[in-house]
């Protein structure tokens, strides 16, 4: 590819809404272009990366015996009504109507459609096991789309679905996919960890998330450096031996000092040790008048960040809420946290008015009785907190648990460490959840109908771009791993407009590398060296070859790997050996 024929469009500054480095760099490198909240154009440079990611996934999925199909983006609501998800799924599911007023959804995932295919096509045990996958556009109306492709509303996912005759066979399908995922993420060249995840109502131990390690990750991973133990925070907390300890020991003996008590004090009052991995704790109150009309709403947000040190505990504003920190309504907070109406409050603020307060800790809802308090916005300290000591023991439905770095690993083989990660893949044993709901059966050896055992396996294709950049960048830009770089090598001729020799040598090297199947780009734009180098360092091409008159006289060019401090002079003929 020649740069003049391709499309290169870089920016000096990232747009103001880009918060994390991958989003900033993708925008600056011209990989994506925002069209709406969480909706992006994939520009030519970014699309090349997406295509390479997809190609690796395809190869490994095919090698693992999965077969590719393609299911529609727009799906009739009927199938989703069969499983109940049309109603259950909440606002993340985008529902649309056609001209006849019929309901459709824009697929966030495809269990319903694939199960519908399976119940029609897979009739006999002889056709099992079967694994179908597709790489398709998804839409999830995320509460907070952000970080560019990392949490988009429209994004690309590879989703695969396995069908088996019994639980054992489904386990083998699961293990097979788990192994394929390891090969896929190995090939991407990313540092990742497969962690056990919660299986929810399905039960069992077959759910793993593939997490790319990155400090900006929204997830926390608990692992033991000296053993195989690794789990996501939700599962680690659920299984922690001290689970519920904090909540159960809710002290009623202290009263915060009006005007002096900090959020940390309140956390202590609530029995949440400051080492607790509570990402956010929200207390919400609505003040109502006699008719029950809301006259004032208040919110407190406690944030416990990172490795949960005391000095990282702070109260903060609840971003994105209408009216800001203090005057959001309880309904808005419920919406913000994606919980059902009625999860929170309302409670009265007037001393003596006692209504139940509910606390959300990271979407885990705990109920608390009779609690009256106020807040001081200026320094985010709680003031006037009036803990009802004469009240009955709060009924704290304790789902607040803690896992702390340094705790003993559940396998007894060391201590726990905590890392942040980005969920890029998820493998999940589904059992007969969907086949039962949709009556997807096959005939076994004895001719009896049996429900199919299912598994589902997702990879966030577009999220991988963001995750790879979070892990691989420097002050100058992106550093793509070779396997998914938009181009593997860029040839930068200096003064090709003045020197026939340079132009000829650049063309020749370009032709040779192309003939060898190297994904090479020739920068024939005639840019000054500084601007040219800055562009390719920003875009993150892993290998660069610079040709200039002086070097060529000695038969040499300059090679520089994207992570190298300086260029190395090499004979033209030796360039290839650097591209391995
Ligand atoms: P998350 O916890 O980040 O919301 P999820 O658990 O809802 O993700 P899954 O249903 O497991 O996601 O989907 C499979 C994969 O799709 C995820 O592992 C992730 O890589 C990707 N993915 C999910 N939501 C998004 C999104 N909004 N934008 C980009 N990729 C996404
Ligand atoms: Mg999600
Ligand atoms: Mg998840
Ligand atoms: Mg998931």
From TrEMBL:
GO MF assignments? proline-tRNA ligase activity
State its location(s).
Answer: Cytoplasm
Give the catalysed reaction(s), semicolon-separated. tRNA(Pro) + L-proline + ATP = L-prolyl-tRNA(Pro) + AMP + diphosphate
Q: Which PROSITE patterns match?
A: AA_TRNA_LIGASE_II (PS50862)
The protein, known as: Proline--tRNA ligase
Q: Which EC number applies?
A: 6.1.1.15
For this protein's source organism, the top of the classification is: Bacteria, Pseudomonadati, Pseudomonadota, Betaproteobacteria, Burkholderiales
Subunit info? Homodimer.
- Which InterPro entries does the protein's record reference? aa-tRNA-synt_IIb (IPR002314), aa-tRNA-synth_II (IPR006195), aa-tRNA-synth_II/BPL/LPL (IPR045864), Anticodon-bd (IPR004154), Anticodon-bd_dom_sf (IPR036621), Pro-tRNA-ligase_IIa (IPR002316), Pro-tRNA-synth_IIa_bac-type (IPR004500), Pro-tRNA-Synthase_IIa_type1 (IPR023717)
């Amino acid at each position: 590819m020649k740069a003049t024929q391709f499309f290169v469009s870089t920016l000096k500054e990232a747009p103001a809404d880009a918060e994390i480095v991958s989003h900033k760099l993708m925008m600056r490198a011209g990989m994506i272009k925002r069209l709406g909240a969480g909706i992006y154009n994939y520009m030519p440079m970014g699309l090349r990366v997406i295509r390479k990611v997809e190609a690796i996934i395809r190869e490994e999925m095919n090698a693992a015996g999965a077969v590719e199909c393609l299911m529609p983006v727009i799906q009739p609501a009927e199938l989703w009504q069969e499983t109940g998800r049309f109603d259950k799924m909440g606002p993340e599911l985008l529902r649309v109507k056609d001209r006849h007023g019929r309901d459709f959804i824009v697929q966030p995932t495809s269990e319903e459609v694939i199960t519908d295919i399976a119940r029609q096509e897979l009739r006999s045990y002889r056709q099992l096991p079967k694994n179908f996958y597709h790489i398709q556009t998804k839409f999830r109306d995320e509460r907070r789309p952000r970080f560019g492709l990392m949490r988009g509303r429209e994004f690309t996912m590879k989703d695969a679905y396995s069908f088996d005759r019994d639980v054992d066979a489904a386990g083998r399908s699961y293990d097979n996919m788990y192994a394929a995922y390891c090969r896929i993420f190995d090939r991407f060249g990313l540092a990742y960890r497969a962690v056990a995840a919660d299986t929810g109502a399905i039960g069992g131990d077959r759910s793993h998330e593939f997490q790319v390690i990155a400090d900006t990750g929204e997830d926390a991973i608990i692992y033991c450096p000296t053993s195989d133990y690794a789990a996501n925070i939700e599962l680690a907390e659920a299984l922690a031996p001290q689970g519920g300890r904090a909540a159960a020991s809710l002290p009623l003996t202290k009263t915060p000092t009006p005007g002096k008590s900090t959020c940390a004090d309140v956390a202590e009052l609530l029995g949440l040790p400051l080492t607790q991995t509570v990402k956010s704790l929200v207390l919400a109150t609505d003040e109502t008048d006699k008719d029950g009309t809301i006259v004032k709403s208040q919110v407190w947000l406690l944030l416990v960040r990172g490795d949960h040190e005391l000095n990282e505990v702070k109260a903060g504003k609840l971003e994105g809420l209408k009216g800001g920190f203090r005057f959001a309504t309880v309904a808005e907070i419920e919406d913000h946290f994606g919980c059902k109406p009625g999860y929170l409050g309302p409670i009265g603020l007037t001393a003596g008015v006692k209504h139940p307060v509910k606390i959300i800790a990271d979407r885990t809802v705990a109920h608390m009785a009779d609690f009256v308090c106020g807040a001081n916005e200026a320094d985010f300290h709680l003031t006037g907190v009036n803990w009802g000591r004469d009240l009955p023991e709060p009924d704290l439905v304790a789902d607040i648990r803690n896992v702390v770095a340094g705790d003993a690993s559940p396998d007894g083989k060391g201590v726990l460490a905590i890392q942040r990660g980005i969920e890029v893949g998820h493998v999940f044993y589904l059992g007969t959840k969907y086949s039962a709901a949709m009556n997807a059966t096959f005939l076994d050896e004895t001719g009896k109908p049996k429900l199919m055992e299912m598994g589902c396996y997702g990879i966030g294709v577009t999220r991988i771009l963001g995750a790879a950049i979070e892990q691989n960048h420097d002050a100058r830009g992106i550093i793509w791993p070779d396997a998914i770089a938009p181009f593997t090598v860029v040839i930068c001729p200096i003064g090709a407009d003045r020197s026939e020799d340079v132009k000829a040598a650049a063309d020749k090297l370009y032709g040779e590398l192309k003939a060898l199947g190297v994904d090479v780009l020739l920068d024939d734009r005639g840019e000054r060296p500084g601007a040219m180098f800055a562009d390719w360092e920003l875009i993150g091409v892993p290998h660069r070859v610079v040709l200039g008159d002086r070097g060529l006289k000695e038969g040499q060019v300059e090679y520089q790997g994207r992570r190298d401090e300086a260029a190395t002079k090499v004979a033209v003929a030796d360039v290839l050996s650097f591209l391995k």
